[in-house]
Amino acid sequence: MNRSTSEKLKVASMIQAGKGQGEAIDRGHGIFESTGIGNSYLITTSEGDVLVNAGTLGDARRGLEKFQKISDRPVRYIVLTQSHANQFGGLEVYKTAENQVIVHRNYPAERRRNQALEAHYKRGSRRIFAAITGAVEDIMPTREVEPDLLIDDFHAFELGGRRFEIIWTPGGETRSAVVVWLPAERIAIVGNLFGPLFGNHPNLNTMRGDKPRSALEFIDSIKTVRALRPAQILTGHEDIRGEQFIQDELTRIIDAVQWVHDKTVEGMNAGLDLRTLMREVKTPSHLALTEEYGRVPWNVRAIWHEYTGWFDPSRGTTELYDVPPASVAPAIAELSGGVERIVEKAHQFLGEDKPLEALHLLDIALAAEPQSRLAKEAAVAAHELLLEHTSGNNLWERRWIEAQIRDLST
């Protein structure tokens, strides 16, 4: 199956939207948006402006030009809603001696951790996002900009007659996540608290290897936003309006994630194994959220590991040790009559429309003979069939499968 990267994927098109944006988007109440891998918002006042999120380095270079057409007043404050590169990457473009960068107290520690694991995180992220976000040099800063003010649960200030409140929401994508609340206008700027899509299942533990998020902290943070009763929410990529609509959607998100959490815990207490729960936990139709970014079975797994850690008893004694299943692959191939016989059986599974069963066998075949052309070709066919099964509707899943096909085809 040959699919373009952005076909049917709303997230991909959102991330790439900023490249064609000529003017800042007026979101009302003196708030202007520069769209990018992460949106930036300029909030104008008579005494200077407030910037919420700097975007990536490339986003900021484009955004500065747009914002300078809107206002010639200085940016007095820069608020970062979390510690990912699509929030801080362009700080150096906007930072001056006259403005103040405000972050949550957890931000510096998160930046240190990300720097310590830079190669690991970059490897995982580029595998999924490289074709969508572009070159690393257009994302990451050339120098680190240190924050000026570290806040705790709550911080407020006034500028040009406007009140700004910054509220900690630790259930966001990082534990430095905050929302910016404009009480007079009843507008919440939430960054990626919900992930890139509003009304989507959160991605509690991404495939690129981020530190896991807590399901219950996510729920509590959404409750914090709901209690504000916003009439408008500006996310990292979307403009959501209508008080009742927002209340209803926030309640549905809360109830859906709570349901997945509770059913997972219930199954754990009943003695069900992890993969059974991944198959069986499904939200009822009235709580269904989209799954383009996060998915229910992945969140079941994230919740399981949040509470139990790395050890999975259903995998038995070998889970305790460093000898992988691949170590016996040559022996299994020998007992099977060779890699060709394993590939032959894998093709039988493909004929029965069972790509995952085929891939389990092909993992053994490729561990036994990593350069087997027969096994690689069968694995490509299995991944293509799997992509048909999933319809390519989840960004992470599709990009992983496409990367596997690319690697197997070389």
Number of strands: 13
Shape: elongated
Q: How many helices in DSSP terms?
A: 15
Structural class by helix and strand composition: alpha/beta
Number of domains: 2
Share of helix, binned: 40-55%
In the predicted model, the low-confidence regions spanning at least 5 consecutive residues are 1-6
- Order of strands, main sheet, comes to 1-2-3-4-5-6-7
In short:
With 410 residues, the chain is an alpha/beta fold. Helix content is 45%, strand content 14%. It folds into 2 domains: 10-246, Metallo-beta-lactamase domain (Metallo-beta-lactamase, Chain A); 322-409, Alpha Horseshoe (Serine Threonine Protein Phosphatase 5, Tetratricopeptide repeat).
Question: Would you kindly provide a written description of the structure presented here, covering whatever features stand out?
Answer:
The protein is an alpha/beta fold and 410 residues long. It folds into two domains: 10-246, Metallo-beta-lactamase domain (Metallo-beta-lactamase, Chain A); 322-409, Alpha Horseshoe (Serine Threonine Protein Phosphatase 5, Tetratricopeptide repeat), CATH 1.25.40. The protein contains 15 helices and 13 strands. Strand 1 and strand 2 (31-34) form a beta hairpin.
